[in-house]
Amino acid sequence: MKGAGCSMKKLYLIGGTMGVGKTTVCQILKRKLDRSVFLDGDWCWDAHPFLVNPETKEMVMDNICHVLNNFLHCQAYEHVIFCWVMHEQEIIDRLLGALDTEDCQVRAISLVCSREALAERLQRDIRRGIRREDVLERSMGRLHLYGALKTIKMDVSAISPEETAEKIMALGENRRI
User: Fold this and answer.
1) pLDDT digits over 68-83, tens only?
2) How many CB atoms lie within 10 A of CB 46?
3) Can you say whether the dihedral through the CA atoms of 77, 36, 166, 94 is positive or negative?
4) Kind plus residue range of the DSSP H or E element containing 126
5) Which long-range contacts (CB under 8 A, 24 or more apart) does 143-148 make?
6) How far apart (Å, rounded) are the C-alpha atoms in residues 98 and 133?
7) Chain-wide mean pLDDT for the chain?
8) CB under 8 Å to 142, separation ≥6 — which residues?
9) From the centroid of its chain, how far is CA 22?
10) Residue 177 CB neighbours (<10 A)
11) In whole angstroms, what is the distance from residue 31 CA to residue 86 CA?
12) Which strands form 9-15's sheet, in the order they lie side by side?
């Protein structure tokens, strides 16, 4: 489907470990950017029990690419916002290889933060019952992986989700951040 037309669109791929603030930032972006649509990769793989195996990994990639390509081809949207953990370059490369990004501006961004900031955010979510205790170890274990990715790294340790969204919008408009 390459070249089927996403003229003047902007595709934001926003990655980061669990608890860094991806979904919150993307919801803010969706409200701030005119003609925007948002997909959280987790919505394409919300199952109980949550199973990770070759079949479910392939299914979620197919689900994500199908929905994102639909958004890219829909003339109603100018900004397509996607977030997911995306801790390996292979994930990003697979997505980009399957998406019709011809004539699109693609911004691949990794939200990163200090271990202390991440622990504080995750502990807050655990206390509120939003996450389970085991997320701390899993998320901390992935934090270092983002440095190796071919993405724009944005340290969100000391800035609010609103400030993060503003910085991402500045990237999309080629303004200085």
Assistant:
1) 999 999 999 999 999 9
2) 9
3) negative
4) helix 115-127
5) 143/17, 143/112, 143/113, 143/115, 143/118, 145/17, 145/87, 145/88, 146/15, 146/16, 146/17, 146/87, 146/110, 146/112, 147/112, 148/89
6) 35
7) 92
8) 17, 18, 85, 87
9) 6
10) 10
11) 23
12) 36-40, 79-84, 9-15, 104-112, 152-155
The answer to whether the Cα torsion of 25, 84, 102, 73 is positive or negative is: negative
DSSP secondary structure letters along 70-104: HHHH-TT-SEEEEEE---SHHHHHHHHHHS--TTE
The pLDDT of residue 2: 46
The pTM score is 0.91
Which residues, at least 6 apart from 65, have a Cβ–Cβ distance to it below 8 Å? 95, 98, 99
Which is it for strands 79-84 and 152-155: parallel, antiparallel or unpaired? unpaired
Residue 50 has pLDDT above 90, yes or no: no
The length of the chain, given as a count of residues: 177
pLDDT in tens, 1-14: 444 544 479 999 99
Q: What digits encode the pLDDT tens for the residues 108-161? A: 999 999 999 999 999 999 999 999 999 999 999 999 999 999 999 999 999 999
